[in-house]
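LOG
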Amino acid sequence: MWAENNKTKFNEEKSQVMLMTRRKRKEQKEILVYINNKAIPQVQKLKYLGIIFDNKLLFREHINYVADKYKKHISAG
């Protein structure tokens, strides 16, 4: 309803949900989000504008990704 009221459209095929927290709670970490009555998948990491975010905001995945990417360029050149 919010998107409709604000004349915004979301693509449910490209959308993902991620709960970001650094807390170590024992509560349920599964959340359900729907767009146009379609459930959006929950992920542990996602790539947005070239940056890989994980649910703990540690950036290890991104650092490893960038390091591996440049290792290939260095060894190829």
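LOG (cont.) second protein
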Amino acid sequence: MARELDIPPAALKDAESFELIRVWAADQAQHVTMIPNLTGGPGNFGALLADLARHGARLYSQRENISLLEALEKILSRMSKELKEQGRNVIGSIGHDA
């Protein structure tokens, strides 16, 4: 398994593209680095998460042979449960400007 994913072709072609978030699995936990100058506010971050959920639903829909809607419902159900948990440690940092 590759340690890092490929950069999308559109990002390679666009001289103004930049990475927003990096998520790693290490020591049985997720570790996150985010670019410190994300534009927009919390609502924009919610839109980014919605897009990520759609991408995940597409992946799981194809891999598990279920509908996109079923995959998205499972993602949202688990996400809601996780967000309701109190005291969950969040590991990560704000990245440095490139």
